[in-house]
Structure formats: C-alpha cells, structure tokens
Amino acid sequence: xxxxxxxxxxxxxxxxxxxxxxxxxxxxxxxxxxxxxxxxxxxxxxxxxxxxxxxxxxxxxxxxxxxxxxxxxxxxxxxxxxxxxxxxxxxxxxxxxxxxxxxxxxxxxxxxxxxxxxxxxxxxxxxxxxxxxxxxxxxxxxxxxxxxxxxxxxxxxxxxxxxxxxxxxxxxxxxxxxxxxxxxxxxxxxxxxxxxxxxxxxxxxxxxxxxxxxxxxxxxxxxxxxxxxxxxxxxxxxxxxxxxxxxxxxxxxxxxxxxxxxxxxxxxxxxxxxx
Length: 275
Prior knowledge:
By secondary structure, the protein is an alpha/beta fold. Helices cover 37% and strands 28% of the residues. The chain is built from 10 helices and 11 strands. Strands 1, 2, 3, 4, 5, 8, 9, 10 and 11 form a 9-stranded mixed sheet that branches. A two-stranded antiparallel ribbon has the order 6-7. Helix 1 crosses helix 2 (44-53) and helix 4 crosses helix 7. The protein starts with 8 loop residues before the first strand and ends with a strand. Residues 1-6 have low confidence and may be disordered.
C-alpha cells in the first residue's frame, strides 16, 4: 500500500462513528422499516440511522458483548425514535423469525472464522452470512463494512516483530505469521460468501481513508487496544509493554509524520446485497 495519505478522506480517532455514518449514508434504507444492526457496539450505526430517517424508526441492535449493549442503550437515552431495542446475541445464531427486517446493517464483525480470504476458500459453514440472509425480508437490503487494510495496525505489528527479534524473544520463523489483530478481508472473497448465502444485486467496492493521530502517545494508546497482538504476544506484561513503547518511539513512526500529526491509511470494503 502507498504510504502517501494526504489526499484521503479524513476520519477521527473515533473512526467507528465515522465509518458507521458512511455505511448508513451509502445504504438504501426503507423509511418506517424495521432495521437490524449486527455487531452494534456503541450503537453508532443506529444513531446514524435515526439522524438520516428521523423519529419513525424501528431499530434493533445486537452484539455478543454485554458491556457494549449496555453502552448502546445508554447512548440512546436521548434519541427519539418509534422503537429501539438492544439485545445480547451471536450473529451466527440470530433469535429472530425468517424475513423479520427490511434492512440489515453489519459493520466490521469479521467473517474470517468461516472463510479464508487469503486463499479464497471456505473453512466453516458461512453461518453468520446465511443467518443475515434468513432474517432479511424479500426485497430488503443488507449493507456491510469490513476491513481491507489498516496501515496503523500493520505498522504496529511490524515494529513488534522487530522488537521480538532484537530482544531475542522470538526467532524470525516464529513471528512470520504473527496475527495482524483484525479480520483482513477482500472484495472477491466477500462477494463469494454473499453469493453463497443467496444474496443478489451485489455491489462491492473499497474506499480509502486517512486517520490522523495528533501525537505518538495518541497513536500508541489506540494501538494498545486495536493492535491487541502486542499485549497477547507479551502475555499482558506491563513492563514489557512499556519497554516495547520505548523501543517503538526510538524506531518510530516518523515516516508517517505530517504537519498536524501522524497519518495512516485505512481501507474499508463496503458491500450491499438484496434478497
């Protein structure tokens, strides 16, 4: 990927909200329809839906993380819509009847548990995508966003690899396939899993964005969460994490420095399909 990011659309460090707004903007939502948001997180997509469609919304958000559901409910306290409910639920086992929703939104839940995007082959039953298709009404639309590339996280991974070798903690062959901490997917693979589930009128494209961190410390703070492989590989050892931060600050991300901070590219796949 090209490291030149100056002309890309800017997203904030709170990029989940920015990408939720982008997905909702691109989706064809049915006014007064019933809308399901899978992997709702803080409820960002449904907040964007309420902004787009107004009060006459019937919204349902699900997430497997109970804490996220509590956060979404809290974020909706002052948002007026016809109905909004949030439930803890797995995407691969949706507790809804067939053809329950006019629209389904699904942002960044990852499908690599059932499909190998690198080698383009199924490694599971495609359960999540088939469940999404099942609960969508005939004529309805499902809209997806997923990661194609995250430069900031991949740079963090590369620096971790260098650190592990320089500190004699790992041999090169042991860290060659170190996780990149996110489900990296492809347009070609996403089309295959959508077709396998039964979707038609499929439209898929990717869009590049720039995320700008004001300082090294801001980048590092996000990486400690988003690039979880750092903590996982270092066994949650805070002293080693501090040492890694010191090492990284020396080896640095200076090549990404711009006038207003450190800029990295994030590429998102947007996919849409009908039933």
